[in-house]
Amino acid sequence: MERAENTARILDVAYRMASMPIAYNGANSNEWESALISAGGVDQFRAVYDEITPERVIEFLAFSEANPSSIQCCFETARQNARSVRSALTSEMWEAINSAWHDLRRFRSQKIRVEDLPRFLNLVKQASLLYDGSAMRTMLRNDAFWFSRLGVYLERADNTARVLDVKYHVLLPKDAEVGGGIDYYQWAAILRSVSALVSYQWVYHQNLRPWLVADLLILREEMPRSLAACYAALSRHLDDIAHRYGVSGAAQRQARSAHARLTNRTVEEIFRHGLHEFLQDFIADNSRLGLAITNQYLA
C-alpha cells in the first residue's frame, strides 16, 4: 500500500510539472522520463515501449502487469497478502485494502486520459491513507504491527530519497539557472508530491531554497516523510521487537547507525560532499537494512 501511494505521488509530480506553461517548464522538459527514473522502472519500461509518452508512462506505472511496482500490481499483492494473514488484520484494514482493489478495477475498466489522472491518483492516496490510519488506530501493538511499520518506513525512506535525487539531477534543464523560475516551480511540485509545502513554509518562513528543501526532507525528524523521521521510526520498532524477544542483532545496529549519521549530519556537509552521492549511498544502505531484517527474522 505504501509503494502504491509513493508511485501515485511520483505520477502526481510529473503531471504537475507537465501542466506548467513552457515558460516555467522548459521547451525540452523530461518530467515523464523523470517519473520512470524515480520509480526505478526505466529499463523495464524500455523493454515494453520504444518511446516515452505521457499515456505510456501512466499505463506502465499505474496498471502494467509487466511492472511489479505498478499501482495495480501493488494493490493486488497487498490484497493477496492481506487474505493470507487475514486473522492478523483488523476488519477496518481489510476493508481499506479490499475497497481500494475494487475501486481500481472500476478505473481500469475505462481508458484513463492524462486529464483524468488527478482523480485517479487522489483515489490511490486516499486508499493508502485510510489503510495506514486504520492500522495506526485499530491494530494490536505486537509483531504484526511492528513488522508492517518496518515495511512502511523502509518504502517511505526509499521513495523520499529517490524523489530528491531525480529532482536534483534530472528535472532541471542543463541550460536553466539553479534558483531560477523553472527551479522554483519544480521544487514546489516536489514538496507538494510529499505533502510538505505547507510544512516548509512553517519551518523556514522564506522562499524555496534547494538546500532547505533537502534539509526538510533529509534531516528534519518533525517532517514525517523525511529520511531522519523514517529511521527514527525504524530504530524504535526494531527495538520494540528486540525488547519483546530479548535479542538484538545486525538489523538494530544498522538502523541505529544510519539514524545516528542522519542526526549528526548538516545539510551543508551533504551538499559539500554531493547530494547525489549521499542519496545513492542512502538508497543502497536502506536496501541492505531490509535484507538484514529479512535475514534476521524471516529467513
Structure description:
- With 299 residues, this protein is mainly alpha-helical.
- The chain starts with a helix and ends with a helix.
- The protein is globular and about 55 Å long.
- The protein has 16 helices and no strands.
- The relative contact order is 0.10.
Round the mean pLDDT to the nearest integer and report it: 88
Order of helices and strands: HHHHHHHHHHHHHHHH
Low-confidence stretches: 172-179
Report how far apart the termini are: 23 Å
Count the DSSP helices. Answer: 16
Radius of gyration: 19 Å
Q: Could you tell me the strand content as a percent range? A: under 5%
| Cα shape | globular
Portion of residues within helices? over 70%
Number of strands: 0
Taking the sheet with the most strands, its summary is: none
- Please state the structural category: mainly alpha
Tell me briefly what this model is.
The protein is 75% helix and 0% strand. It is mostly helical and 299 residues long.
Primary descriptors:
299 residues, mainly alpha, 0% strand, 16 helices
Task: Indicate the topology.
Layout: H1 2-18, H2 22-25, H3 31-38, H4 42-48, H5 54-62, H6 71-84, H7 91-108, H8 117-138, H9 143-171, H10 181-193, H11 197-204, H12 210-218, H13 227-245, H14 250-264, H15 267-273, H16 275-298
Helix pairs in contact: 1-3, 1-6, 1-8, 1-9, 1-10, 3-9, 6-7, 7-8, 9-13, 9-16, 13-14, 14-16
